[in-house]
Amino acid sequence: xxAIGTEPYIILSMVLFLMGxxxxxxxxxxxxxxxxxxxxxxxxxLALVAxxxxxxxxxxxxxxxxxxxxxxxxxxxxxxxIVNIFRERQSINIDDLQQxxx
Amino acid sequence: xxxxxxxxxxxxxxxxxxxxxxxxxxxxxxxxxxxxLMVSLFGVAGYFVLLSAPFLAAVQILVYIGAxxxxxxxxxxxxxxxxxxxxRYIRLVPSLLAxxxxxxxxxxxxxxxxxxxxxxxxxxxxxASTRDLGAALVDENGYVVPFLLASVLLTxxxxxxxxxxxDDTA
Amino acid sequence: MFESPTIAExxxxxxxxxxxxxxxxVAWTLLLVLVDLFAGDEREHWTxxxxxxxxxxxxxxxxxVYAPAADQQTALxxxxxxxxxxxxxxxxxxxxxxxAVLMSRDYLMRAGIHRGEYYILTLLSSAGAMFMVAANDLIxxxxxxxxxxxxxxxxxxxxxxKNDGGELALKSEESGMKYFILGAFSSxxxxxxxxxxxxxxxxTNIPQILEVAPAVVDAAxxxxxxxxxxxxxxxxxxGFKVAVVPFHMWTPDVYEGAPTPVTALMSVTAxxxxxxxxxxxxxxxxxxxxxxxxxxxxxxxxxxxxAALTLVLGNFVAISQRNLKRMLAYSSIAHAxxxxxxxxxxxxxxxxxxxxxxxxVYILAYMFTNLGAFAVVMTIERVDGGGGNIDDITGLxxxxxxxxxxxxxxxxxxTGIPLTAGFVGKFMVFAAxxxxxxxxxxxxxxxxxxxxAFYYMRVVVNMYLRDSSGELLPALExxxxxxxxxxxxxxxxxxxxxxxxASNLVSMVSIA
Lengths: 102, 170, 512
Known about the structure:
The complex is a heterotrimer of chains A (102), B (170) and C (512).
Chain A: H1 6-26, H2 30-55, H3 59-89
Chain B: H1 5-26, H2 30-50, H3 54-78, H4 92-111, H5 130-138, H6 144-165
Helix pairs in contact in B: 1-2, 2-3
Chain C: H1 7-14, H2 20-39, H3 46-66, E1 73-75, E2 80-82, H4 84-111, H5 117-133, H6 138-156, E3 161-162, E4 168-170, H7 172-201, H8 206-219, H9 222-242, H10 251-257, H11 260-285, H12 300-319, H13 324-345, H14 352-380, H15 396-399, H16 401-415, H17 421-435, H18 439-464, H19 479-497, H20 500-505
Antiparallel strand pairs in C: 1-2, 3-4
């Protein structure tokens, strides 16, 4: 079976990871930030599956499994927080929250 | 790269994944953003098939698209925030430049000949069956601890979601 | 072919006994969920009482499991490592959680909130921290970190307070939201870093990474590149969790906005978990990233720069803070910098053990002192969220002399004055840094400690010297927070005065 090597997948996962990170940095809406984080987690999953094939091991797949579980838990909490904050102030934009004062 | 089913699939899924990603990062409409996210997640599921991980591809579609993306859609609807994006970007130019620079460094690192040859040995057609994956969770040398921790984590998340969502006055 | 072992085989093979402190705490907490459910409002004190008992049970189990403590043992098929490092940090986490539960009881009683889930989430978070310090595999590090963090996101967001005008006096949801976004962001870095390390080494098990890493480094292939980038991403991900510069931006807002007992808890357990993972990953797994000459780990320079930046920024920005919680937030950033100094020192071959021991003693001292300081802040803070400014503490010495005395001792310990635990911690960290050849970093540490004296002493000056002719400050707190202060004070003084005690406790710790 003619397969594509590991490197293209890793480069792609890096692109996706940076895209997600860029999204977190440049967007302000909490839900969009959250979706960008999901992109980053997915890029990690992609890299893990590609490496698992390279090493011929199941460990990478198991890791992906746990990432998905944790992502599900995070999304439940995150959306509860978002809905909660919206209920309180009718806005979920980070710029309507107090600025990060650093 | 010769033209065959796998390389065509690779190109198609790349378009899905990256296109969806660009859609998420640039969208003006939150609801469209969730659709773009689903497209991107679907592309990643396609890669999983190409990478001989069909079970994970199925889980990706069921859990990510079926549950996570739908939950996000719910959040968008519940907060009625679909069209409320006033400022589209902040810190756009510096972030973009930093990301590009970082990407070029990474690209060089992965492909440059100075780092010598790539990958040790190559790719069996199937990595692990669903059975192997299940066994790995409970086997000796298996992942019992994270498996148990994940179950506790889900319990905690459930309690926590109820904890925040419940009205204070109740 | 996979054959399922019987339960008895599983228990013996997996060496389950050595995980008892963590597993007992989790099991107890899950039982407590049911107790809380059926206890009803009139018996709502059962849950905090049960939480304290659970911590006690786990503490006793920890003493039994780690009494011999000399040799390390792995459990659950190498996922879990039970050594002196784990045993010591488990004790620190349990004591910190006990103090936080006492403070929370006071907070919830004064605010008139009956929420048993609060204690359950606190205990789950601590159980996550306990598994994190015992993690011997990157997957366990990740899952345990999430178990540690997710309850903290919820707790940070659980109570916003509106004052009479409908303005938000305590921006708790905002705090929780920021903590959540930054936490998820940093987790993504952690996972991607772990993925690259896995790609380079073919394993997620920390000792196995140590075995294969030299070959990966020597090969100078793209695998080497993955290992280096992966390590960098792991440092970034965990750097967010422990709040070191430049990954600290979220800390002041989150610490200020969260309810004070939650701030106290997260300023201790989240840092312990993060530093334990950093120490295990960098010192144990990647100590072989050695430069050819001199035997210095390749990550040492990076960690040193982060440590120096953190020390300078944390201490200098803290000077300008008027809100006590915000000041303590910057102070906690600065203290993360001191622990980073120890981490950097662990990068020199031969001084890994002494540096790790220094870090542990520092964490112990920081735990007692910081929780004590937050507990004192709670006593002057009003339920409506006001009263946490540095001016509100004026005249405390006249109205509450014992409380002022306790706060003074905590401030002295945070500064690092002899006869307090803070001094012992700083001394061991700086000694390790000098031994490791990082004299410059140790000098920066000492100088910034002098700077820190300025803002810590300002609190003391406000309590004792400034005009205090006004009315006496009322006693707002309940008896629970006084116990918390007493325990923290005892810890600060005992480990400060009997200074060999702490170093004896950690003398068997070795993770390299």
